[in-house]
């Protein structure tokens, strides 16, 4: 537990915030700046927002003696990543009216909009509310969006996991009503007892917390990168419980060896939904009470587990739960990728997974993706599901409606784009990075597409173009694009420079290793050319590039 005399400044902001209200109301009324007050920049995260600025225009603004061009990113809370067609159409309209117009599908199965000016923040939230959507706790030192396996299956198990994600999300919502006070103009809560929060208290968590649910054999959610990982145990075609792991997290800091990426460690097996919810709750309370509140770089649950030891953490959780974990049950992951194209589920409904490069839904002269999806939504005959690989599943389509949706997919070029994208491109992930992320040291989503274009002919040169190699890029070492557990990972160090990591496995159960530091594009291509050449000659039967790279690194030691 952290010494109360050695708390980080953020801890004071939280405890003195009057239920996360702070002076946000006053900040929003200040027309003399596009920014909000410094303490409020922390509090607004708990409402699902970040203050950002257009970093491409900083020099221009400074030269004109203007403040930075501040704007806000708003992220929705969508446990399990689901929208109706009506909600998607509403989202399209909101994006057009209040943001840059780009709809961003995130690596946590939700949506965020960028470039929202301060005067548009409240109207945006109110527009979401009219569509029964909110951004509560989508950011901040709380449980974030709960992810779960989105790929359709020939069984009802994925629906069961989706429903559990919703229950966990509801259980972990902050009790304060400040979101409605500030953004929806509800009456101010006078009785503070109604806002007493047994989970978060007035301190909230030391740092953000992420939860993911996987249904084997697919690990499309990258379950082990979460603070809390739930892996469904299936026997006789039924979910009989969940293996629970804890302590995942990919963020680190350049030059700080005390920080590191880590995959979650198994705590054990829990057999009923009631026990699963209780275990999740108490894993969170242990982190609340034992997590580091002095140094935010060391505040994630992974550091708490490594401080207490996995056995010590498990013992404390079991004491609070009133029951013990059983030994972890056997499970097996066979893939991590999305299943593109048409798939039919056990009820005869059709699902179409389309490739959305780095989750950016927008229109270009060559590819009217956003307009095409609006036309599909306007039929009212589909639902929209998001994947942790930043893609989109058009779901729950009846047999009678499939031909109509298929025609619209062809008309807009969506099915052609999905079919023609290379295996490498379809397995690529990138974070937002520049120009809006304040932490970015290098490009990611604006650069990786062109880099992939230059890597593709190198793969073809060695006959590897059909290999499903995972390639991921983050503009800084915080890991939002999940590059530390890719087969090929790029971590930004400076503009145009990246650390190159290799050796992660294809299933998301092994982290990669830094291979080269501060490399630019030319050296990246040269290095991958050499590695692909060796791989094509020396790989074992069915050996993935990640497994080969890991073996190659071990041999080179």
TrEMBL record:
InterPro entries: NiRdtase/SiRdtase_haem-b_fer, Nit/Sulf_reduc_fer-like_dom_sf, NO2/SO3_Rdtase_4Fe4S_dom, NO2/SO3_Rdtase_4Fe4S_prot, NO2/SO3_Rdtase_4Fe4S_sf, NO2/SO3_Rdtase_FeS/sirohaem_BS. PROSITE patterns: NIR_SIR (PS00365). It catalyses: hydrogen sulfide + 3 NADP(+) + 3 H2O = sulfite + 3 NADPH + 4 H(+). Residues 72-126, 346-411 form the Nitrite/Sulfite reductase ferredoxin-like domain. Its EC number is 1.8.1.2. Residues 166-322 form the Nitrite/sulphite reductase 4Fe-4S domain. GO terms for biological process: cysteine biosynthetic process; sulfate assimilation. Pathway: Sulfur metabolism; hydrogen sulfide biosynthesis; hydrogen sulfide from sulfite (NADPH route): step 1/1. GO terms for cellular component: sulfite reductase complex (NADPH). GO terms for molecular function: 4 iron, 4 sulfur cluster binding; heme binding; metal ion binding; sulfite reductase (ferredoxin) activity; sulfite reductase (NADPH) activity. Keywords: 4Fe-4S, Amino-acid biosynthesis, Cysteine biosynthesis, Heme, Iron, Iron-sulfur, Metal-binding, NADP, Oxidoreductase. Belongs to the nitrite and sulfite reductase 4Fe-4S domain family. Component of the sulfite reductase complex that catalyzes the 6-electron reduction of sulfite to sulfide. This is one of several activities required for the biosynthesis of L-cysteine from sulfate. This is assimilatory sulfite reductase (NADPH). The lineage of its organism: Bacteria, Pseudomonadati, Bacteroidota, Flavobacteriia, Flavobacteriales. The gene is cysI.
């Amino acid at each position: 537990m952290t010494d109360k005399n050695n708390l980080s400044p953020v801890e004071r902001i939280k405890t003195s915030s009057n239920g996360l209200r702070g002076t946000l109301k006053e900040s929003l009324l200040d027309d003399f700046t596009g920014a909000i007050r410094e303490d409020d920049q922390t509090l607004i995260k708990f409402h699902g927002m970040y203050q950002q600025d257009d970093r491409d225009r900083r020099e221009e603004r400074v030269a004109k003696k203007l403040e930075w061009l501040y704007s806000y990113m708003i992220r929705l809370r969508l446990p399990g990543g689901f929208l109706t067609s009506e909600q998607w159409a509403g989202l399209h309209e909101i994006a057009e009216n209040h943001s840059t117009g780009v709809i961003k599908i995130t690596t946590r199965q939700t949506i965020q909009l960028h470039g929202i000016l301060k005067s548009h923040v409240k109207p945006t939230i109110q527009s979401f509310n009219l569509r029964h959507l909110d951004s509560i706790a989508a950011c901040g030192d709380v449980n974030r969006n709960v992810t779960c396996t989105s790929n359709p299956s020939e069984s009802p198990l994925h629906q069961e996991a989706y429903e559990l994600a919703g229950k966990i999300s509801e259980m972990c919502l902050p009790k304060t009503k400040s979101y409605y006070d500030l953004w929806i103009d509800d009456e101010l809560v006078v009785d503070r007892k109604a806002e007493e929060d047994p989970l978060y208290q007035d301190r909230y968590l030391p740092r953000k917390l992420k939860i993911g649910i996987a249904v084997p054999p697919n690990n499309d959610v990258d379950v082990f990168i979460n603070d809390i990982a739930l892996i469904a145990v299936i026997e006789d075609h039924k979910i009989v419980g969940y293996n629970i792991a804890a302590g995942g997290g990919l963020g680190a800091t350049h030059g700080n060896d005390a920080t590191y990426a880590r995959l979650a460690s198994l705590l054990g097996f829990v057999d009923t939904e009631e026990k699963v919810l209780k275990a999740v709750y108490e894993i969170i309370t242990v982190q609340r009470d034992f997590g580091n509140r002095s140094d935010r770089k060391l505040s994630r649950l992974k550091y708490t587990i490594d401080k207490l030891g996995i056995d010590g953490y498990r013992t404390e959780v079991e004491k609070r739960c009133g029951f013990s974990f059983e030994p972890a049950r056997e499970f097996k992951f066979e893939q991590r990728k999305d299943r593109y194209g048409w798939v039919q589920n056990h009820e005869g409904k059709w699902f179409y997974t389309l490739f959305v490069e780095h989750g950016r839904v927008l229109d270009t002269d060559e590819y009217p993706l956003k307009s095409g999806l609006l036309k599909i939504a306007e039929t009212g005959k589909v639902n929209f599901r998001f994947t942790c690989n930043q893609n989109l599943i058009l779901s729950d389509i009846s047999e009678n409606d499939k031909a109509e949706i298929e025609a619209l997919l062809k008309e807009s070029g969506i099915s052609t784009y999905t079919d023609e994208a290379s295996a490498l491109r379809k397995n690529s992930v990138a974070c937002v990075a520049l120009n809006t992320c304040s932490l970015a040291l290098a490009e990611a989503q604006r650069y990786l597409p062109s880099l992939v274009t230059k890597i593709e002919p190198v793969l073809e040169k060695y006959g590897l173009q059909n290999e499903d190699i995972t390639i991921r890029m983050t503009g800084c070492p915080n890991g939002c694009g999940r590059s530390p557990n890719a087969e090929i990972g790029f971590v930004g160090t400076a503009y145009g420079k990246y650390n190159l990591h290799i050796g992660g496995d294809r299933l998301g159960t092994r982290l990669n290793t830094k291979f080269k530091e501060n490399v630019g594009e030319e050296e990246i291509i040269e290095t991958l050319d050499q590695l692909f050449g060796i791989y094509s000659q020396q790989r074992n039967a069915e050996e993935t590039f990640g497994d080969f790279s890991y073996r190659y690194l071990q041999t080179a030691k």
